[in-house]
Amino acid sequence: MPLTLAAMRLKWFVLLLLIGLMIAACSPQTSPDVPEPPATDGPSPHSSPSATAPATAEPTSPPVPKPSATALIPSEPPDLRYLQARIEETLADFDGFSSYVVIDLASGERVARNEDVALAGMSLIKVPILINVYRVLDLPLTAEESKLISETTAQSSNYAANLLLQLVAGKEDAYAGADIVSQTMRDLRVYNTFIAVPIDADPKPDRLNTVLTPANQRTDITTYADPFRQTTTGDLATLLNMIYDCAQNDSGPLRAKYGEAISMEECQDMLEKMRLNELAKLLENGLPDGVPFAHKVGWIDDTHGDGGIVFSPGGDYILVMALYGKDWLEWEESAPLFEQVSRQAYAHFNESGIYDGIELPPTPMMAPQTPTPDLPHAVVTNTSGVGLTVRETPGGDEVAIIPDGTIVTLLPEEVVNSNGFTWQRVRTPGGDEGWAATDYFTPWEDSVNN
Rounded to two decimals, what is the model's pTM? Predict the structure, then answer.
C-alpha cells in the first residue's frame, strides 16, 4: 500500500534522528574542567602516623616561588655562603631553636648551623637502623624483609623499626639490636647518635638507658632531647653522605669499614626505599614534582626534623633541618619554614642568576685562638656510652666524665701503672686536668688512620 506524503516525511525524520544519535554516541565526550582533589596533607605532629596534618599556614614573609624543574641551570652552583645567608634570613624570626646542614655533593662544600646540638632521635633515628639492616641482610631481600623496610620508611612504622632491630640482633631482642646500632655509630665516628631504648619501648632497670655524647654534654644550648634516642643534624648529614658515597661511587666509610657486608647495590636499594614517604611532607614540599628525594622525616610535640639527599638536575646535595620549640611546636609554624628553606636550596643548585647584584656574604669571623703547645691528642673510645672518668690521681676522686668521641690533650707527665690500669694525665676540652685510663682512649693519629 503506497505511503502518504506525511508518512514519508515522518519516516525520513525518524531516520535522520537515529543517525544523529548514533554519531553523537561515537563522538568524544567533553565536559567542563574539573580540578584535581587537593592532595592529602601529612599527619599532624601531635597525632598518630595515619592521621592527617592541619592545613599549612602561609609564611609571613613573601614565599619563594616553587622551583621549576626546567629552569636554566647554572654551569656550577654559586658559593654556598649565598644560600646560607638566605636560610639565615628565613629562620631569623623563628622563636625557637633551628639547625641545618647543606652539603654540595659534587664539591664537598658544606654550610651549617647548630649541627652538633643534641636532638630527639624521632624517626630520623631510623636512618642508622637502615644502615645496620642492610649490613646484616643480603640482596635480594625476602618479601617480608622488603615489607618491613618499606613500612619503616614509607609509613614510619615504629613497630616495623623495632622488628628490624631484632633482625640486626639476629634474635628477638630489639634492645640488643639497639646496642648494635649505637656501637656501629661509634665505629663510624658518629658519636652523637644512639638508641639506648627501642622506639616506644620502656627503659629497663638492668641496662644503660641513655648515652653520654659530646652533643648532650653541652651546657650552652639544649633542646631537652629525649634521653633514650638522640642524633644531630650534623650526624644525620654525615650518615647520608656515607650512604651516597657507597651508592654512587662504591666508596666511603661504609664500604671501607664493612666491605662486602654492605655493597653498592645495597646502598642503592636503601636510597630507593628512603624515597618512599606516605606521611608528612616538610622539605619535600619545596621541591618540584618528580625530583627524587631520599629522606626521612620525624616529629614529636616540640621538635620537627627532615633530612635527605636531593638528586636534582643541577647537582646532588644533602639538606638536613630541624626546628625545636619549647614545650610545643605547631605544624603551621614549622612546615612553611621547611618548605621555604628547601625551595631556596633547590633554586641555589638549579636556577641561574638568582644572586645577581648581590655581594657575596663574608665568611663568619672566628674568635681568635690562644696559642697552645703542640701536644698529642686522643679520642675517648670503648666506654660503651658510659663515658671516661678523669680523676685527680690515678684511681682517685672524680674530676669529670667525658663521653665517647671527645678529644682530649695528652699531657707530658709519665704514665703511671695503678690498680691494673695504665694512667695518662690529660686535659679535657673544658680545661679540666686529671688522670684517665689509657684503655678508654685512642691516640688521635691512630683514630684518623683507622
Answer: 0.77
